[in-house]
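Margin note from the TA: students keep mixing up input and output lines. Inputs are the sequences; the output is the structure of the whole complex. Example:
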Amino acid sequence: MRQAWAHRELWGHLGWQDIKQRYRRSVIGPLWITISMGTTALALGLLYSQLFNEDTSTFLPYVTAGFVIWAFILGCVTEGTDVFIANEGLIKHLPAPITVHVLRLVWRQVLFFAHNMIVYVIVVAIFFTSLDHPYKLGSDPVIKPGLSWNILLVFPGFALLAINAVWIALLFGIISTRFRDIPPVVNSFINLVFFMTPIVWHAGVLHRVTGDQGGGNWRLLIAELNPVYHYIEVVRAPMIGHPIMWHHWAIVGAFTIIGWTLALVALRNWRARVSYWV
Amino acid sequence: MVSIDVWNASVDFPIFDAKSRSLKKLALGKVGGKIGSEGRVPIIEALHDINLSIKEGDRVGLVGHNGAGKSTLLRLLAGIYEPTRGSSRIVGKVAPVFDLGVGMDPEISGYENIMIRGLFLGMTRKEMEKRVDDIAEFTELGDYLQMPLRTYSTGMRVRLALGVVTSIDPEILLLDEGIGAVDAAFLGKARDRLKDLVARSGLLVFASHSDEFLFELCDTGLWMDEGQVKMQGDLREIVTSYKGYDPYERFTPETLDRISQAPVLSGNGGE
């Protein structure tokens, strides 16, 4: 790990290169990332606000923020399973620590995330007037306090998410290099996770479905037992002025510690084996 | 002190097929119990019980049939493979030139490729920026360095790769066959530079099938056969026993002239 930090210029440069590279021969360049995210978020936001009969002006920012964060998680997990397999050539030909490839991947995803944040900024600017005071998100009984200086929490929140992305990519990468069934399993499972996680719907809906206000706690477990929900909430809540719930932070913190321990154990035991397995 | 030491090292490759890579096999295997060798992953022993000690100033030529383990040995020496049994110790900054297509991006320019390769070899961006001019001059690629790499010929890629590794002052230089694509004039230049490097500080291990290149760059030899070191010693003796003839008998006088900086052959030239 320390060696990989010493190589930071390398993966930093490679991550940039990946982005520049992708658009080298295209006219609009990196804006494509933003545009595709914009259209998807817009379409999903409009569609689901109608389906759930929610107020578009508050629901659209909600979906956008959630979807931008989801795109980051999705990228890190799916590409993470593939990170060593895809870099087979480099691993076999140049003696660099394998963590370089993981950090390059996460750094690239962070840059993508930064591109996508443009969409979020635009959406929030448009709907700012309906977000800057306490509001209700559709049928959710909890009153949202609205945008405030809490928005700065997005930085530590995202930093925490990115730190988690590194261990996820590292651990999944090592395991799926050895067991090649993992990437397809993860790829098919991740779609399910997307729909199970409150991204295009919100946890408040679970109250409405049960028909009472707070009695349907077991249904809330659908969201609460889903680790991805906590990860998203840590970053999303400050972005759109939702109440900051510290239990999300605690859960994500616990996952960070457990995950890093696992990943470091895997790294210690199998680091040298990865070049044999790819 | 630059050195590579390898003790009783073996490199075993597990051969995973769809079955043995699968988790299902692992999970169900416990229940059903192992049946004979079916539960085991077959292994290819690429290197077996290697003992080596290469010291500063050594220029080792690696010979052997295809599949004898030359490339695997080079990767072991580079630290890419850690021995599955035995141990190895590598002291010094390693610069490998194996496959020229790898680690080079065809879409970006020669300059950018120089930068990336340098960073991979442990340089910082600033150090590389200082060296870019030197590399440009050495490779004689000139304005081509602005062009994307896909427009380069094989020989030009070799020049670029050699330019980078020789410019970063490596201590351990590992070359696999394939650098033969450059023309004679450049090879002479590269040879001088490589010799210079090795003389300054460092060692060279070079795998090749071409006698000429071997003798131009190396002085000692190592014959790999079926994953084991078959012979080690003076390059001329090694090549003679490996190929069954004395390579010096087949060199043209010009080649001999070039090689003849080595004192051994002064009386032996010509046919």
